[in-house]
Amino acid sequence: MAADHAVHAEGLVKHYGRVRALDGLDLDVAEGSLLALLGPNGAGKTTAVRIFTTLLQPDAGHASVAGFDVVRDADRIKSHIGLAGQNVAIDEYLTGLENLVMIGRLYHLASRDAKRRAEELLMQFDLIDAANRIAKTYSGGMRRRLDLAASLVLLPPVLFLDEPTTGLDPRSRRQVWGMISSLVSEGSTILLTTQYLEEADELANRIAVVDAGRVIAEGTSDELKDRVGGNRIEIAVAKDADLARAAEVARRYFSSDVTVDPAQRRISAPSKNGTSQLATLVRDFDGAGIDIVDLQLHRPSLDDVFLTLTGHQAEEEKVAAPAGRWQRRPR
Amino acid sequence: MATAPAISTAGTRYQPIAGRPRIVWAFLDALVLAKRSVLETVRVPELIMFVAIQPIMFVLLFRYVFGGAIQVPGGQYVNFLMPGIFVQTVAFGGVTTAIGLAQDMQRGIIDRFRSLPMSSSAVLTGRTIADLARNLFTVIIMLTVGFLVGFRPGGTPFEFLLGIVLLLGVSFAFSWISAFIGLLVRSVEAAQSGGFIWLFPLTFASSAFVPVATMPGWLQTFARHNPISVLADALRGLFHVNPALTTGDIRWALIQSVAWIAGILIVFVPLSVVRYRRTTAR
Questions:
Q1: Is A94's CB within 8 Å of B116's CB?
Q2: A330 falls within a domain
Q3: Which CATH number does the domain housing residue A150 bear?
Q4: Residues in A touching B101 (Cβ below 8 Å)
Q5: What is the pLDDT of residue A34?
Q6: ipTM > 0.90, yes or no
């Protein structure tokens, strides 16, 4: 039942004109966990978040957040959720402090409480030194942090973060990730949308892969990766002449599954027990006098997962290319 | 790697104030947002230009460029002109609401507001109240400049104050029309042009700058019933600057003015609030 799920959705459908943004989305987020809604642009992630945060009404299906129905109890949900949308929703011409005090006041905190809470948040988000500067002067990372802080004014039990690290440099992204992780460890429930497979991998307890308005797979990162199969070992040799012998050595370990790519002088095979095999394999190559230039144990990435599940790359825009047109292979 | 600061659950110590009626919150929320909007004006130099310089320019240009060519029956042009310019300026001043709302939608802050447990009319009321404050400031500047170039209102101090109140009413009403436009259009640029475009025929085909009698007959019909004319004439009556108006004329203009302001609000407040509830950021 929905009771132990902080977020619950069943058969959500939403149309924009003729576009079916959501096509029967089912979703559950367990209390105190972080679920990543992973999918390409236009998959319906933001639409789902907008329905959960009462900004949009679904055409069909129903959803509840913190036990409240998103349509019937829309007004009551609002004190139980925090939203950090795709665009940073802060006022550029207010200072960091003024932004947070304003949000606190709009949550109907008393003016003194709003100010105190704002100062606490600025401290926690490492913005206290910039508290009295207008947000226009903030860096991208600082804006994101302020935006995230604004969604936490009441420390709501359920948080919706819509692509919270889009457009951030790697350092700021790490910083925001750290803050999100610490929120989850404090007991918040978070629904996070992302197009970054790495982000879902890093943060999420569970990942729901969305494509064309539907959840097409759900599970932990490892479960999803297992769907594509286990690890692969890849070996590149130095000389063309060694390739045939190398393949022979490899077959001792991987029987018939060995793939040979002469152009790249590369051999690859699925590996069942990973690293322990690697050591003996290298010794055998050494013994046979074969020079190895590259050796990799390749864990399937979520990219591979996505490709396997949907038949298209995650980052790819979902626009059908005109038939017969030359297309660059995505790498 | 950056270390994440501990994010405590301290927020739960602060509880929202409970038990106030909705209407009180609607007003308090609006004040919070009006403050935001006023701070923005103060901090954006272009907006201060818009609020202060443009009206001064209008006063000076009309007073000295057109003033010599325009004859008004039984009085000085500067006295005829100033009430007209007041009305025009506060009507134009409402466009900041359209632009501000369009901006909010583009930046996504509307989504945040709509996800908060605040009054849904407050985002709009906040803007229109801020316009009121800005317009009051502008009117004071224009009165000063007007006085320097020869504007001499007659009448009692009470009538004078009533005139200012009437202007604020005009400001509030036109800001709500503007709010609706700001929610309809798809960009800040569109809000800018869409906010102004309809105001030009409305203010110029009126008695704001020239006596209606000088216009061709068909235009006179429009100009006479134009709210800008009605409001300008009511203001002229209160300021005792147009000897051509009889007491009856003035009373009638006042009644019509109040009716126009009320009518605009009755139509555009609900229209905008409904539109706002359905709007999400772009």
A1: no
A2: no
A3: 3.40.50.300
A4: none
A5: 95
A6: no
Please give the tally of structural domains in chain A: 2
Residues A208 and A250 in one domain: no
| Amino acid letter, residue A22 | L
Give domain status of residue A322, yes or no: no
Per-residue confidence at B8, pLDDT binned at 50, 70, 90? Answer: low
Contact between A168 and A10 (Cβ < 8 Å): no
Q: Which helix (H) or strand (E) holds A294?
A: strand A292-298
Helix intervals (H) in B69-156: 77-93, 95-107, 109-115, 122-148
Q: Which of B7, B33, B115 sits opposite A179 (nearest CB)?
A: B7
| Same-domain status, A154 and A294 | no
A163 with A234, same domain? no
- Which residues span the domain enclosing A164? 2-226
DSSP string for residues in A110-146: -HHHHHHHHHHHHHHTT-GGGTTSBGGGS-HHHHHHH
Q: Looking at the domain assignment, is residue A29 inside a domain?
A: yes
* Interchain proximity B107–A175, CB inside 8 Å: no
Distances (CA, A) of A205 to A6, A73, A93, B91, B171: 14, 28, 37, 55, 54
Amino acid at A128: I
Is residue A329 situated within a structural domain? no
**Domain assignments of chain B as residue spans, ordered by start:** 21-278
Distance, CA of A91 to CA of B101 (rounded, Å): 12
**Closest residue in chain B to residue A126, using alpha carbons only:** B5
The tokens describing A100, both together, are 């947070």
**Shared domain check, A271 and A184:** no
Q: Quote the CA–CA distance of B63 and A11 in Å, as a whole number.
A: 67
What does pTM read for this prediction? 0.81
Chain-chain contact of A56 with B36 (C-beta, under 8 angstroms) = no
Which of A176, A202, A226 terminates a domain? The answer is A226
B25:A134 CB<8 A: no
pLDDT, tens only, A65-111 = 999 999 999 888 988 899 998 888 899 999 999 999 999 999 999 99
| Token pair listed for A284 | 């055998």
Question: Testing the interface with B: which of A50, A106, A166 to mutate, by most B Cβ within 10 A?
Answer: A106
Percent of chain B with pLDDT over 70: 95
- Round to whole Å and give the CA distance between A38 and A52: 16
How big is chain B, counted in residues?
Answer: 282
| CA A80 to chain CA centroid, nearest Å | 23
Report chain A (331 residues): mean pLDDT per 10 consecutive residues.
76 90 93 91 90 92 93 89 88 95 94 94 92 94 92 90 88 88 90 88 91 90 77 83 84 75 82 72 84 81 72 49 36 37
pLDDT tier at B3, thresholds 50, 70, 90: very low
Rounded CA separation A2/A63 (Å): 9
A72 and A88 both lie in a single domain: yes
Q: Are residues A146 and A55 in the same domain?
A: yes
Whether A295 and A205 share a structural domain? no
pLDDT: which is higher, A121 or B70? A121
